Amino acid sequence: MPSATGNKRVKGISVFRPFIFGSEAQPFDPEKRPANIPADHTHQWRVFVKGVNDQDISYWLKKVQFKLHETYAQAVRTVEAPPFEVVETGWGEFEIQIKLYFTPESGEKPQTLWHSLKLHPYGPDAEGMKERRDVVVSQNYEEVIFNEPVEPFYEILTGGTSTGTPAPSRGKGKNNKQQQLQQPGRTAEIPLSDSPKNPYSRATEAKELDRMTEAIKTVDQLIKEEKERLVEREKYLAELRESEGVPAVTKKR
Ligand code: SLL
User: Fold this and answer.
1) Hey, which of 28, 71, 89, 95 would you mutate to test ligand 1's pocket, going by the most ligand atoms within 8 Å of its Cβ?
2) Ligand 1 center–CA 62 separation, angstroms
3) 75 lines ligand 1 (CB under 6 A)
4) Measuring CA to CA, how many Å separate 175 from each of 10, 15, 16, 19, 171?
5) C-alpha angle 189-180-144 in degrees, rounded to nearest 5
6) How far away, in angstroms, is 32 Cα from ligand 1 center?
7) Do 123 and 79 contact (CB within 8 A), yes or no?
8) CB–CB of 60/42 below 8 Å?
9) What keywords tag this UniProt record (predicted)?
């Protein structure tokens, strides 16, 4: 608890840090099945928490606790240092609880995420993927937001303002713009373009925004057409009332 240690919070500042969490899974090749795994295990898989483009996140993330299905021996796995991952084999899909523990200086409580382990291909080319025994990736981009971090943690997050990082403008209130301070290795920046290893980039973000803008336009157009139809129907109804007269008794619906 930050208040207990007497640490002051940096007012009006939110610092966010991006990360990726998810899983990769691959079925065993029957020809090259490792000898020492149980006969009913069909896949090898990996669940992980990592930085975008493998950026270091260990300065804010202290440890990660993965809670596997109870069919696993020692279902709770704690990883104290990067890579924050668990490699396993198994036969079934299940929900994995992922608990993020932050650096002690943060004074922050742990945060819990859930990930659905995916072993089986999904999406348009699921059949092809299955035939080729492709790796099944299921991962999400996420951001952790530290609202008004305590000063020592703020120093850690930003790499220290005394080393030449420009002091952030400290606006008022919770809606103050989140800071993206550039310090080698300690940054919230995501790459400009994606690469085969990393799909999360400014370019993919821009594409996604374009898709959303297009979708909003389509929905607006549909609403417009629907409203026009409604106006026409009401007009027709008014005409009918005019020509046929309003029935004296209207049936209850
Ligand atoms: C299912 N509800 O029925 C899920 C549970 C559990 C998967 C999946 C453990 C392997 C072992 C394993 O793969 N558990 O060590 O026995 O699909």
Assistant:
1) 71
2) 29
3) no
4) 14, 12, 13, 22, 9
5) 80
6) 22
7) no
8) no
9) Coiled coil, Nucleus, Transcription, Transcription regulation
User: Which stretch of 21-25, 83-87, 138-142, 200-204 has the lowest confidence by average pLDDT?
Assistant: 200-204
Q: Is 94 in the pocket of ligand 1 (CB under 6 A)?
A: yes
Cα(117) to ligand 1 centroid in Å equals 11
pLDDT for 144-170, tens place per residue?
Answer: 999 999 999 999 998 854 333 444 444
**8 Å CB contact between 11 and 148:** yes
User: Rounded to two decimals, what is the model's pTM?
Assistant: 0.75
Residue with CA nearest ligand 1 atom 15: 72
- Listed by start position, the domains of the chain span 2-190, 201-244
Is the minimum distance from the CB of 93 to ligand 1 under 6 angstroms?
Answer: yes
Q: Which two tokens stand for residue 70?
A: 């109870």
CA distance 201 to 192: 5
- Is CATH 3.30.420.10 correct for 2-190? no
In the block, tokens 């417009």 appear at 224
Cα–Cα dist 110/83, whole Å: 18
Three-class SS of residue 47? strand
Candidates 70, 63, 64, 156; CA nearest to 106 is 156
Protein residue with least CA distance to atom 10, ligand 1: 90
Ligand 1 centre to CA of 244 (Å) is 69
Q: Residue 157 and residue 198: Cα distance in Å, rounded? A: 23
